[in-house]
Predict the structure.
Amino acid sequence: MVEKIIVDKKYNEKKLNKIVLEKISNINYNNFCKLLRKKDIKINGKRTNKDIIVYENDIIEIYLNSVLNNTSLDIIYEDENIIVINKSNNIEVTGEKSLEKQVQKYYEHKNIKPMPCHRLDRNTRGLVIFAKSKNVLEILTQKFKNHEIEKHYLALVYGIPKEKEKRIESYLFKDRKKAHVYINNRYKKGYQKIITEYKVLQSRANNTALLDVKIETGRTHQIRAHLAFLGYPIIGDGKYGKNEINKKFHEKYQSLISYKIKFNFTTQSGILDYLKGKEIILEKIKI
């Protein structure tokens, strides 16, 4: 299968990945990289293996056979009950063309229909837990509600916090119409309490800091909005960050990774008792 794209003015002098990922909805960034490795993309009749700049009226031809019907999942951990996947950028966890659909297609030959136990934002990458049965899904959903599963994120922010460790309580309002959230230090009608903890892992010379972030409450966009509210926007965040900073660091996606999950079970866990105290960590991360 070949997809043909003629570059219009909107994508003039943009990276190849931008137009390909936006125009072809059934591939993700990992697929795009695979297409480059295999030289399955032509620009004006010449094959390329680099994410180069394209120009108005360029003709892009993409040979999709190497990525269609051959979904590659980055499986970090798997047992008889759960799967932990390293999600890439530019893909939703649930929906019509999502990680969930990819996982279910990958396991369909085993008559298993894995279901996600939690979500990450489209452009946040990292660990997502999938349950292999409804029973396991119910157990883990309850564990998340009880705060018995600890999730840690790496966030690269602009600005270096004066306090190296901090636990912050604020309030968040979700505007569904605008798909945006707002933070306030005081309670207001319609706002929900949020708790975010951070620890500075590295302070860098370019006025950035690498944080380990843990959330006790899992509200929509909580980490991104809360850190921005505190004056430390995540680099690459187009919604809550600053465009001039994102351009300076040439970051298209927010520098936020779900990198560690710990099962801190304190109540009955049924068939998942064996997970108590277990940590799953994403190794060799570049951020």
